[in-house]
Design goal:
Length: 160
């Protein structure tokens, strides 16, 4: 009866070895991602017109540091696309990411930060009137991550 715990410990130790059995394929886990919540709102500019402010709140809910590519060369990426439904649309592709080698900002575990970008009215007039979806993208050292920021109607009206 006393040998049972010793045998169990030996089996447990052997089962936890780091050597993979022959033929086992090890796969790496996907990189940890940020929690991203994006929003839009109409803001009045100095000429009395309406600009579009897009905000992304980033939360590092992981246990590792995440390096966010940042700076003037890589602002919050915003994409407007015609979307008569106004429904969520997860459009994300490689063109939304920043080039490699740019400065990064460390987001430690548990930290959050807010990024915003204002699309001026003179840029918005290039879009025909109608309903548009808004997506954002951020770039880390390991991936490009997108989020839905909502639907807007152009031309913008003042926020209520």
């Amino acid at each position: 009866m006393r040998k049972a715990p010793i045998v169990f410990i030996a089996l447990l130790a052997g089962g936890c070895s780091s050597d993979a059995p022959t033929g086992t394929v090890r796969r790496s886990l996907p990189p940890p991602t940020l929690t991203v919540i994006a929003t839009t709102r109409s803001v009045t500019n100095s000429q009395g017109g309406q600009d579009l402010e897009v905000t992304a709140r980033l939360q590092n809910s992981t246990s590792v540091h995440i390096q966010l590519v940042s700076g003037l060369q890589c602002p919050l990426f915003v994409r407007l696309f015609l979307d008569p439904s106004g429904e969520f649309s997860g459009l994300l592709d490689g063109t939304m990411g920043c080039p490699t080698g740019l400065p990064t900002m460390d987001i430690p575990p548990g930290a959050s930060l807010t990024l915003s970008r204002t699309i001026p009215q003179d840029s918005l007039v290039a879009f025909a009137p109608g309903k548009y979806g808004v997506n954002i993208a951020i770039t880390t050292n390991g991936y490009v991550q997108g989020a839905w920021a909502g639907a807007i109607d152009l031309p913008l009206q003042p926020s209520q």
